[in-house]
Amino acid sequence: MNAYQPDPRTTPTVDAKRLWAGGAATAVVAALAAVVGLLLVRDVFDVPVITPATGIGTSQAANLAGHAVVAALIATALLHVLMLTTPRATSFFGWIGVLATLAATLLPFAADATSASRICSAAIYFVVGIAIVTLLTGVAGSARTS
């Protein structure tokens, strides 16, 4: 007896070049959103921004931008795996992305800082996370080939 062979027309396929090009563009947007948020909060509102303890780069802007890029690329890898293995991948990705965004948004509230600093830092992380989730969800639709 032959092993079950799935119908190739129903096997999900992903245009990896399109997905990762969209992931790279998302990483650029996320980095820019982080830097703009930092400049707005720190330089316009004169509120200190809480940044991750693990440093990427030598400045606060490079640190935030670097973490945003890493987050976007990890999210792209997760989306790629989900698209290859999971039914309704974008629904699962959306939930995972929103919950991860909420977790990152809550991190500043664990720091010893002023309320303004906590709220403004959380707002930056929230905007970056939502940008990543929404952009990659859109990219997923264009990268699906069947």
From TrEMBL:
Superkingdom of the source species: Bacteria
Source organism (scientific name): Rhodococcus gannanensis
Keyword Transmembrane: yes
Membrane-crossing segments per the record: 20-41, 62-86, 92-111, 123-143
Pfam family, one: DUF6069
Keywords: Membrane, Transmembrane, Transmembrane helix
Protein name: DUF6069 family protein
